[in-house]
Amino acid sequence: AHEQNTTFKIEALRNKLLGTWAAEVKGLAEDKTEEYIKDVVRSDFQEAGDEDVFRKLKNDLEGLVDEHAIRTKMSECLQAAKDKVSNS
Fold it and tell me: Mind giving me the DSSP string for 34-64?
């Protein structure tokens, strides 16, 4: 149960970091950023795995960044989230 909780925390934090990054890429105003981050976090509940989040970002960032950039950022944010959770 502890491992599932840790995994959930890591994935939720990764999605918050991704949402923050994507909001910046999209040039969202500060008041829109929080809601957008919540949308990205919610998108992860659609199915198991990361593809639901990837699809949301891919659709939302169409013409702004390519798929490789999104996958790279997902990996970076996952590592940052792991580091933060393991150090807390």
Answer: HHHHHHHHHHTTSSSSSHHHHHHHHHHTTTT
The token duo for 26 is: 């999209």
Q: Are 56 and 39 in contact (CB under 8 A)?
A: yes
**Phi and psi for 25 in degrees, rounded to 5?**
-60, -40
Task: Report whether 16 contacts 41 (CB < 8 A).
Answer: yes
Query: What mean pLDDT, rounded, does the chain reach?
Result: 95
Confidence of residue 20 (pLDDT cuts 50, 70, 90): very high
Residue pLDDT, tens place only, 35-69: 999 999 999 988 888 999 999 999 999 999 999 99
- The Cβ of residue 75 has, within 10 Å, a number of other Cβ atoms equal to 12
Residue 74 contacts residue 15 (beta carbons within 8 Å)? no
Sign of the C-alpha dihedral computed for residues 8, 59, 61 and 38 taken in this order? negative
